[in-house]
């Protein structure tokens, strides 16, 4: 069931949801949390689809906040709230409210969302894109016990990681961190089996991929060894090598689906390590609502402490060659102007 409300308020939205549940014959729905999604029109469909898929594991009230940009001064002064309510088969295993905020109401989104939160239930705030640097300091972020962002969608993911480390608050997390959970589990299990001392490590993956940086920071923080970040064509994270005195432990995933685990003294093994979609990542994050101390420690370790990658070195060496060639041609330019000045003097 879908209900559209124009120029409404939070009280009318709550009343419409209660009536909608009665109309479909389910006045009580067992929802375990409120998921607040802060996004724009462009990304709202994909974010809502992922949240609906995740709600089959975590029945929840999904509140989508879409801030509509106003084009004229008059429309910016007019505050208006439009809502779309979805209950039943159209909203996964819970219920969904899509809020479109116009005008001055855009700056007061928290006052609109607050009456729509489930009583006595945890609140999770998710920014699929365009997350603020200080998640806990954002007005909507203050409503949540858990705050989820995705640095992979940022314009400069590596710089964003540094900013997130400086503004981290308990409850913050990142889907780029969630993507490497299978990698961390596999590497931890391999070290438990071998019981070897790691001397150094190498993380290989795409450029500007925050998951690669987070995995490298996690290894450096936990193993207290130098970790080098190298580049590959992807997709995503492609390989991790842990150097020990008995040989290298290598987890290599070249195709984004199937990986090969190589350990000293053991035959190579194929392990499933496919790239997961957003719904799976979101469902994993909703399983735990307490602060992730491991993520905090890895994030605060800092990207700057990683060993410089060997791959970008040639680019840095070639870059000065271009400016050196240009100045050689520039000194010849003034000569034609100097000759006419001498002739003019002889005349």
Describe this structure in words.
36% of the residues lie in helices and 24% in strands. The chain is built from 13 helices and 14 strands. The chain has helices spanning 10-23, 41-54, 73-77, 109-113, 157-167, 175-178, 181-194, 210-223, 278-285, 293-301, 313-318, 321-329, 334-346; strands spanning 2-5, 33-39, 60-67, 80-87, 95-102, 123-126, 146-149, 172-174, 198-205, 227-231, 237-244, 247-252, 258-262, 269-272. The strands form 2 sheets. The protein has an 8-stranded mixed β-sheet, with helices on both faces. A 6-stranded mixed β-sheet has the order 10-9-11-12-13-14, with helices on one face. α2 (41-54) packs across α9 (278-285) and α5 (157-167) packs across α10 (293-301). The longest helix has 14 residues, at 10-23.
Which range best describes the helical content: under 10%, 10-25%, 25-40%, 40-55%, 55-70% or over 70%?
25-40%
Distance between the termini: 95 Å
- Strand portion: 15-25%
Mean pLDDT: 84
Sequence of secondary-structure elements: EHEHEHEEHEEHEHHEHEEEEEHHHHH
Total DSSP helices: 13
**Poorly predicted sequence stretches spanning 5 or more consecutive residues:** 311-347
Question: Describe the biggest sheet?
Answer: 8 strands, mixed
Major beta sheet, strand line-up:
1-4-5-3-2-6-7-8
**SS-based structural class?**
alpha/beta
Give a quick rundown of the structure:
By secondary structure, the chain is an alpha/beta fold.
What topology does this entry show?
Layout: E1 2-5, H1 10-23, E2 33-39, H2 41-54, E3 60-67, H3 73-77, E4 80-87, E5 95-102, H4 109-113, E6 123-126, E7 146-149, H5 157-167, E8 172-174, H6 175-178, H7 181-194, E9 198-205, H8 210-223, E10 227-231, E11 237-244, E12 247-252, E13 258-262, E14 269-272, H9 278-285, H10 293-301, H11 313-318, H12 321-329, H13 334-346
Parallel strand pairs: 2-3, 2-6, 3-5, 6-7, 7-8, 9-10
Antiparallel strand pairs: 1-4, 4-5, 9-11, 11-12, 12-13, 13-14
Helix pairs in contact: 2-9, 5-10, 8-10
